[in-house]
UniProtKB/TrEMBL annotation:
<protein>
    <recommendedName>
        <fullName>Transcriptional regulator</fullName>
    </recommendedName>
</protein>
<feature type="domain" description="PF0610-like rubredoxin-like zinc beta-ribbon C-terminal">
    <location>
        <begin position="68"/>
        <end position="105"/>
    </location>
</feature>
<feature type="domain" description="PF0610-like winged HTH N-terminal">
    <location>
        <begin position="27"/>
        <end position="61"/>
    </location>
</feature>
<dbReference type="Pfam" id="PF21476">
    <property type="entry name" value="PF0610-like_N"/>
</dbReference>
<dbReference type="InterPro" id="IPR038767">
    <property type="entry name" value="PF0610-like"/>
</dbReference>
<dbReference type="Pfam" id="PF23470">
    <property type="entry name" value="Zn_ribbon_PF0610"/>
</dbReference>
<dbReference type="InterPro" id="IPR036390">
    <property type="entry name" value="WH_DNA-bd_sf"/>
</dbReference>
<dbReference type="InterPro" id="IPR049159">
    <property type="entry name" value="PF0610-like_wHTH_N"/>
</dbReference>
<dbReference type="InterPro" id="IPR057022">
    <property type="entry name" value="PF0610-like_Zn_ribbon_C"/>
</dbReference>
C-alpha cells in the first residue's frame, strides 16, 4: 500500500472498465477481487460501482448477473442474497469458508 497521491479514475471510466472486463468473462464471471485487480480499484469499492453499472446496463437492455456465493463447507447457495458483497458466514453451518459471488453481463 503506497500513499502516493495517484489521482482516482473518474467513476464513469471505472464502470466502463468493469463492463469491459465483465464482458470478457461471460462463462465463469469475475469476483470482486478479480475485478478490483483488473480495473485497479479497491475490492470494497467494487460492489458500489457494480450497483451503478447495473442501472446503466438495464437502461441499455442488458443485465448484471450475479453467480451466487456458495458455502464451501456445506454447499449452501446464497441464491436470495441481494447484496453484491461476500457473505460473512453460512446461515446453515456457520462456516466462514464462503466462495464469493461472481458477476457477468448477459
Ligand atoms: Zn455452510
Amino acid at each position: 500500500m503506497s500513499p502516493s497521491p495517484v489521482p482516482q479514475p473518474r467513476a464513469a471510466t471505472v464502470r466502463g472498465a468493469l463492463e469491459a472486463e465483465l464482458s470478457s468473462a461471460p462463462e465463469t464471471g469475475l469476483t470482486a477481487k478479480e475485478l478490483s485487480a483488473r480495473v485497479g480499484i479497491s475490492e470494497k469499492d467494487v460492489a458500489g460501482h457494480l450497483e451503478h453499472l447495473e442501472k446503466s446496463l438495464r437502461a441499455g437492455g442488458a443485465a448484471l448477473e450475479v453467480i451466487p456465493s456458495e458455502c464451501l463447507a456445506c454447499g449452501f447457495v446464497f441464491k436470495d442474497r441481494k447484496r453484491l458483497t461476500r457473505p460473512g458466514s453460512c446461515p446453515e453451518c456457520r462456516s466462514t469458508r464462503i466462495e464469493p459471488p461472481a458477476f457477468r453481463i448477459r
